[in-house]
């Protein structure tokens, strides 16, 4: 029973932590303090729920507990009266919703913009937002960025201190400041989506709540900035990727790769929404499309193909070439290699892939040997492919991925022409 309760607490925490931290940041105006208060509430749940049972509304229980801790903290503070005036309410009364002044009415979106404030480095913005809104561990964030875990931990600690020192307001910026901070916000929202779409670690291949949260934030951003093509491009990309969710896993949660997915299970409503968002983005593009519009075009190419065999890989390879010019990245090149292999044969893709084996940031990235194993298998070089799949299995932290890769290694007596990627997603 205690084990079941602890699992329930873990699930609730994954879902509720971002909203909890956002609401507390609105209250105390300090993301570091807000996270500490949220953690205090989690500890209280771990102490009380095994004995009392999980409450009917666990999110509200956590918020109430955290707010009480916040009230106690403010009372103990020597600047109690000043903080009381800033918060603008009587701490002895129930905490009401704060009147909205920026037209968004979304604490989570405010928290994204706070975490993406220009006083922080680009890397710190993304890491902090993933920590606060994605509830990711420092290890998961490190693997998402392909950097050491201590580096991420230091970035997060320094970011909180910097924001507190700068007294960054808890609000959505306006005008020129909004435009300046938008690109980092889009990056962070997509990173959150990616972690939900292909979980870095754990027993589940997907974390749907993160995909849903990223999509919700993206849609709010699109309403906030209706003339920004990259915002609509990101929304289009996420809608189309999310449409595959039901087809990406089997009955027991096992991964199903793109080539093997039953496309009848793809969500046509989400695809329609994604294509509509892409059309809005293309109508707004002035000159060359940005990276999110290009990635949405790639995703749309897959969505429009009724069968895997119908995919226009030549067009997708060309789009990846444009994406590589717009946003140079080893990961983009990795996916371009897959697209080239599908358009012009595995030897062509392998030639590009072999150039990436020396890239330092990809050394611990399991998809590099995974994709290389796939191309070697398609060339009939099964012994080499087996070694690559085994190496990929040793690098991944996701149990579902590890099982899939070990199975592929064991199956190397059969050719099995399965594409490992092609649009950055499976």
UniProtKB/TrEMBL annotation:
Q: Where is the DUF6596 domain?
A: 181-281
A Pfam match is DUF6596
Q: Which residues form the RNA polymerase sigma factor 70 region 4 type domain?
A: 114-163
Q: Which GO biological-process labels does this protein carry? A: DNA-templated transcription initiation
Q: Disordered: where is this region?
A: 407-426
The family database entries (InterPro entries) matched by this protein are listed as: DUF6596, RNA_pol_sigma70_r2, RNA_pol_sigma70_r4_t2, RNA_pol_sigma_r2, RNA_pol_sigma_r3/r4-like, WH-like_DNA-bd_sf
Domain RNA polymerase sigma-70 region: from-to ranges:
17-77
Q: Does the keyword Transcription apply?
A: yes
SUPFAM superfamilies xrefs = Sigma2 domain of RNA polymerase sigma factors, Sigma3 and sigma4 domains of RNA polymerase sigma factors
Keyword list (alphabetical) reads: Sigma factor, Transcription, Transcription regulation
**Superkingdom of origin organism:** Bacteria
The GO molecular function terms of this record are: DNA binding; sigma factor activity
The UniProt similarity line reads:
Belongs to the sigma-70 factor family. ECF subfamily.
Identify this protein by name.
RNA polymerase ECF family sigma subunit
Q: Which organism is it from?
A: Actinoplanes xinjiangensis
